[in-house]
């Protein structure tokens, strides 16, 4: 049997990553499955970072001239490469980020889907023609490429986040510089290699159109500070956004901030219990609770609480936690020991506040001694404490009773974050109220679906400390372009707007 290091090297070689990129470098990459080192990635210096950004800025000057549908062809080819490599790249996501196999594959599927979306979009980048008050004039909007798009990504979606941004940025005529999480640089190198394969088939893309810079947060800081980068899309913790956002604002650059969530679901009296339990289980325990959209707070109607809780506890006790490579595993490891400590800290705080806790303990998985595996935790709370208002990036679900929907909506929104949310109900009035202006204050508000597992067709992102950014579908492409309003006079007179007279000749 191959070791995990041998398998990693084999996948990387098969995907076209050069050995020197992941051997002998300063950045040790650990698999969360066993905690072992699976690569040593070469990191980029400050000088290299500046050079790479300059090369990407030069590539932009050429790429912006290529017609958008042709740019879409490159992204379509990227989608084809991803389709062909789905199994291998998905497996690498499992090895490097610890996702179960179907979620690793699902992440690559998301990349394929956004490429399909962006390729179509490349023929639909369109502005308005607007009625003008002046005769023989035409007023319209044109959308132009913006420049280098910087992408900073988090460990938990090591490749999909890049694709949400890059596929749109590229069809919009931008070049791309990516700073992946220092915990997941291998999947980034593999993705870049696939991009280069697509470029080779495309034939005419400028050199340096997309680049990866590996290293710690100092590379992200350099990206945020570099005046050749007019837009940075940064995905990660709210603490990171608090540093990156002001840096970009200081130089009037654009930002797309996709930060922490603290997502809740309200379970009403009329909810379909079986459907609700399935929705809760996936969104609270999927990806071992390490999705920005993970369900973290469950507000259950008093009349249903004593029926729902015992069944949920049973699910929590029996869910298969283990090696994510094994068929049947539903919950893989936490990313590292720090994540485990963060979870234990929140559990201790909840306990001190009087919570009743089921699960939460470390589990020994044979053959995976160095991995941090935990039994997902259910934490019954009497009130919404300060601990509950903080995002704990682990499978930890706080549960509370409510009596009135007003009360539940108040608790629902009474946290600093505003990413994803759900209501489980069969009452039309409750469902409509939840998605109305006086309901959920989040960027994503679902009915009879858990808060996680969004599709690429919609705009993805959240409010408040989640950062306000939007990525992926709908009209999000506009964030990657600059808008010009053009007024064209095709007459012989020069009528001024608002009836102003200024006769000089
Ligand atoms: P993190 O904030 O530790 O790191 C994210 C990225 O930011 C990394 O690439 C890191 O190197 C970089 N970074 C950190 N400090 C920086 C700085 N000062 N300047 C520039 N770059 C900096 O996050 P993580 O632990 O990798 O990911 C988990 C977090 O990401 C959670 O809070 C989760 O909710 C959030 N997340 C949000 C979304 C979303 O779409 N809203 C998606 C995925 C993850």
Structural class by SSE content = alpha/beta
Beta content: 15-25%
What is the highest CATH level, the class of the largest domain? Alpha Beta
Bound molecules: nicotinamide-adenine-dinucleotide
Span between N and C termini?
A: 89 Å
Rg over CA atoms: 25 Å
User: Into how many domains do the coordinates divide?
Assistant: 2
Average pLDDT level? 98
Shape: globular
Low-confidence stretches: none
Strand order, biggest sheet?
A: 12-15-16-11-10-18-19
Topology, pairings included?
Layout: H1 4-14, E1 27-30, E2 37-41, H2 46-63, H3 68-84, H4 86-97, H5 101-121, E3 129-130, E4 137-145, E5 148-152, H6 160-171, E6 175-179, H7 185-202, E7 210-212, H8 217-225, E8 231-235, H9 238-250, E9 254-258, E10 263-267, H10 273-285, E11 295-301, H11 302-318, H12 337-352, E12 356-358, E13 362-363, E14 373-374, E15 377-380, E16 396-402, H13 405-413, E17 417-418, E18 420-424, H14 428-435, E19 444-447, E20 459-460, E21 463-464, E22 471-472, E23 481-489
Helix pairs in contact: 1-4, 2-8, 3-5, 3-7, 4-5, 4-7, 5-6, 8-9
The structure holds nicotinamide-adenine-dinucleotide (NAD).
């Amino acid at each position: 049997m191959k070791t995990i290091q041998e398998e990693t090297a084999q996948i990387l070689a098969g995907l076209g990553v050069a050995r020197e990129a992941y051997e002998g470098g300063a950045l040790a990459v650990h698999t969360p499955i066993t905690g072992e080192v699976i690569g040593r990635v070469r990191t980029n210096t400050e000088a290299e970072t500046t050079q790479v950004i300059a090369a990407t800025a030069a590539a932009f000057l050429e790429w912006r001239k290529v017609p958008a549908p042709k740019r879409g062809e490159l992204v379509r080819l990227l989608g084809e490469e991803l389709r062909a490599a789905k199994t291998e790249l998905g497996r690498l996501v499992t090895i490097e980020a610890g996702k179960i196999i179907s979620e690793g594959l699902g992440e690559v599927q998301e990349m394929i889907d956004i490429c399909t979306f962006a390729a179509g979009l490349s023929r639909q980048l369109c502005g308005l023609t607007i009625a003008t008050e002046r005769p023989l004039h035409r007023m319209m909007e044109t959308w132009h490429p913006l420049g280098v798009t910087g992408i900073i990504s988090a460990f938990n979606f090591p490749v999909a986040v890049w694709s949400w941004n890059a596929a749109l940025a590229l069809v919009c005529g931008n070049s791309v510089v990516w700073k992946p999480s220092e915990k997941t640089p291998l999947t980034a190198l593999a993705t870049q290699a696939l991009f280069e394969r697509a470029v080779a088939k495309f034939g005419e893309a400028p050199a340096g159109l997309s680049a990866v810079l590996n290293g710690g947060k100092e590379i992200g800081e350099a990206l945020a500070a570099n005046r050749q980068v007019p837009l940075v899309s940064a995905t990660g913790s709210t603490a990171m956004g608090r540093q990156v956002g002001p840096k970009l604002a200081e130089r009037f650059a654009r930002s797309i901030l996709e930060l922490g969530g603290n997502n809740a679901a309200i379970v009403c009296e009329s909810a379909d219990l079986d459907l609700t339990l399935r929705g809760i289980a996936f969104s609270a325990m999927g990806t071992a609770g390490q999705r920005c959209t993970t369900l973290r707070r469950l507000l259950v109607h008093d009349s249903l609480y004593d029926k729902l809780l015992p069944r949920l506890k049973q699910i929590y006790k029996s869910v298969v936690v283990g090696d994510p490579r094994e068929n049947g595993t539903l919950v893989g490891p936490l990313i590292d020991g720090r994540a485990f400590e963060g979870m234990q800290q929140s559990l201790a705080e909840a306990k001190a506040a009087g919570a009743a806790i089921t699960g939460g303990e470390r589990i020994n998985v044979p053959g995976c001694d160095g991995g941090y595996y935990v039994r997902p935790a259910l934490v019954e709370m009497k009130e919404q404490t300060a601990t509950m208002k903080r995002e704990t990036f682990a499978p930890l679900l706080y549960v509370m009773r409510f009596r009135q929907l007003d009360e539940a909506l108040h608790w629902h929104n009474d946290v600093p974050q505003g990413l994803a949310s759900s209501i489980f109900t069969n009452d039309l009035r409750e469902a409509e109220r939840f998605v109305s202006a006086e309901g959920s204050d989040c960027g994503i508000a679902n009915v009879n679906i858990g808060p996680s597992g969004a599709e690429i067709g919609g705009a993805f992102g959240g409010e408040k400390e989640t950062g306000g950014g939007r990525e992926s579908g709908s009209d999000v492409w506009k964030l990657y372009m600059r808008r010009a309003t053009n007024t064209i006079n095709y007459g012989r007179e020069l009528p001024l707007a608002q009836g102003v007279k200024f006769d000089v000749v």
